[in-house]
Amino acid sequence: VGAAPGETPGAAPTGAATGCQVLDGAAAAGFLSSRSDPGISVDQQRQRIAEQQYLLARVLDRATRTTTLANPFTVNAILDALPGAVATDVDFSLPGLFRTAGGIVDHDPADLVVRVVPTQRLPDQELQQWQPDQAQALFGALRSGDDLAEVGTTTTREIGPPDVSVVVVNGVGLEGLAGQVAGFLTQRGFVVGGAVNPDELDPRDDYDPDQVVTTIRFQEGNEELVEILTDALGDLPLELQPVSQLPPMPRGVTIEEPTVVLEVGSGWNQ
After folding, report:
1. Using H for helix, E for strand and C for coil, what is the string for the chain?
2. What pLDDT is attached to residue 61?
3. Tens digit of pLDDT for each residue in 110-137?
4. Residue 169: phi, psi to the nearest 5?
């Protein structure tokens, strides 16, 4: 019998009888247990697939017993139900489905190789996006038949401050302000690529002592990363300015293409 969430795999669910069990449709669904949590580990995914294969093998064993095949009413019921109970991405015939099921019977779940497309969790916790380099490496290895190595064996990674690179601009000219902001962000895990004056990014700009609001300039498409920064800044008065492209970075900045240019106003009170 499969384990319920929070129970030891292979153990009988709380309140269930131990030993060999005969499962109806609802009980079989409970045994499989979808475990659809986006943070599911690779080991849990492997266990789920193995349980699915085990159940299919047992169903096929029961369906091909002599006592089953000798009963025409049971055989007719199976033939009527099977095509509608199995979904495939190709036009399988009924004999093809049986051949596939027969292959599952002989398959040892211990030999199963499981890989997941490497992803990273977006801040709203509802969306995930591929990690491009690792995902392409996985698909490339699958197409060519190369060794998969360790690609696709890690669980989903949640993006956070280390994924956000920031260049700080002292917008109001207060002495030490840029260093204070850089220290604040570094302590919280953000990557700070340097601190500059406004005219270093645009010769037409200068300090604005009356600027209270802190401005976040970022390239369009990085909204989920900007959200991580705004969450860290709390109630600070902010203005978001998405742009098609950030300006070139001056010498001394260690990041050529930062995620955010943060121009700090006098309202900074962290």
Report:
1. CCCCCCCCCCCCCCCCCCCCCCCCHHHHHHHHCCCCCCCCCHHHHHHHHHHHHHHHHHHHHHHCCHHHHCCHHHHHHHHHHHHHHCCCCCCCCHHHHHHHHHHHHCCCHHHCCCCCCCEEECCCCCCEEECHHHHHHHHHHHHHCCCCCCCCCCCCEECCHHHCEEEEEECCCCCCHHHHHHHHHHHCCCEEEEEECHHHHCCCCCCCCCCCCEEEEEECCCHHHHHHHHHHHCCCCEEEEEECCCCCCCCCCCCCCCCEEEEECCCCCC
2. 80
3. 676 677 777 766 554 455 667 777 788 8
4. -115, 125
| Nearest CA among 163, 222, 216 for reference residue 189 | 163
